[in-house]
UniProtKB/TrEMBL annotation:
Gene: rbfA
Name of protein: Ribosome-binding factor A
SUPFAM superfamilies: Ribosome-binding factor A, RbfA (SSF89919)
Gene3D superfamilies: 3.30.300.20
UniProt keyword list: Cytoplasm, Ribosome biogenesis
Subcellular location: Cytoplasm
Length: 114
């Protein structure tokens, strides 16, 4: 990614955190954290990586609610960040937090065995 795409990704991450926390009123969207935003080089698409509390079914409901609200979220981003074209927003779950917790649990179990 170029320097400009990185700057826009960071700005989008900041704004998305505020939008998801204050503007989205859907009860299916609970405690959602934006972990990363990846913007393509031509600024046409942005993949938003999120983490959420809950079981697998609740996470799928959260993802559906965010996809349903993506038009509203995109218009909010467009009004907050001055771009010629606002990127299309795609949501994905970030499994790195769960993976890190799993590795941490394995390391702790190894230390307990000694």
């Amino acid at each position: 990614m170029s320097l400009r795409s990185n700057r826009i990704a960071e700005q989008m991450k900041k704004e998305l955190g505020e939008i998801l926390g204050r503007k989205i009123k859907d009860p299916r969207v609970g405690f959602v954290t934006v972990t990363d935003v990846a913007v393509t080089g031509d600024l046409q698409q942005a993949t938003v990586y999120i983490s959420s509390l809950g079981n697998e079914r609740e996470r799928e409901e959260t993802l559906k609610a965010l996809e349903k609200a993506s038009g509203f979220i995109r218009s909010e981003i467009g009004s907050r960040i001055r771009l010629r074209r606002t990127p299309e927003i795609l949501f994905e779950f970030d499994s790195s937090v769960e993976y890190g917790n799993k590795i941490d649990a394995l390391l702790r179990s190894l230390h307990e065995d000694k």
